[in-house]
């Protein structure tokens, strides 16, 4: 797992909101229930996304959360940086302090290229692009709980 659970849930919730065909705020409880994510955990994730300027929130009976800007102007990288910071793109994949060209870990040279490709992918992919696949029904946002597809095995 390269992304934290917070980041995984934040991306899923952001895509959920981007895929809705409605204006206004959506309750975190509804999002939590629809995605099968803990309400309290998701609330903390939305707090970080709001602090980063990616979400807007409103309290009260008709409150909830909404995207702070159009999904077409929000990159996957924006969400990842808001929740996990830049470490995915700068730190050692094995977690070794001081890993770099002078004192590399066993994966350093291989990971350096992969993380740049990953950063490029996240930078060039908008939330709207991925939400379009969600709306089309060709991808899913919810854990199936062991049912359905199994991971492909090489």
Please characterize this protein's 3D structure.
The structure is a single chain. With 154 residues, the protein is mainly alpha-helical. It has 7 helices and 2 strands, in the order αααββαααα. The chain has helices at residues 5-19, 28-35, 39-51, 76-84, 87-90, 108-124, 127-136, and strands at residues 55-58, 64-67. The protein has a two-stranded antiparallel sheet. A hairpin with a 5-residue loop joins β1 (55-58) and β2 (64-67). The longest helix is centred in the last third of the chain and has 17 residues, at 108-124. The relative contact order is 0.16. Residues 147-154 have low confidence and may be disordered.
What is the multimeric organization of the chains shown?
Answer: single chain
Distance between the termini: 18 Å
Largest sheet: 2 strands, antiparallel
Would you tell me the structural class of the helices and strands? mainly alpha
**Fraction in beta strands:** 5-15%
Low-confidence stretches: 147-154
Give me the number of helical elements.
Answer: 7
């Amino acid at each position: 797992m390269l992304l934290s659970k917070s980041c995984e849930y934040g991306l899923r919730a952001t895509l959920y909101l981007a895929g809705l065909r409605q204006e206004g705020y959506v309750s975190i409880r509804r999002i939590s229930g629809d995605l099968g994510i803990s309400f309290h955990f998701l609330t903390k994730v939305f707090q970080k996304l709001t602090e980063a300027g990616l979400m807007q929130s409103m309290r009260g009976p008709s409150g909830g959360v909404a995207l702070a800007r159009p999904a077409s102007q929000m990159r996957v990288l924006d969400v990842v940086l808001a929740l996990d910071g830049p470490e995915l793109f700068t730190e050692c994949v094995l977690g070794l302090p001081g890993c770099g060209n002078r004192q590399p870990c066993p994966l350093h040279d291989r990971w350096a290229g992969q993380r740049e490709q990953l950063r490029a992918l996240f930078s060039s992919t908008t939330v709207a692009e991925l939400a379009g696949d969600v709306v089309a029904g060709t991808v899913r946002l919810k854990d199936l709980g062991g049912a359905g597809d199994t991971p492909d095995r090489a």
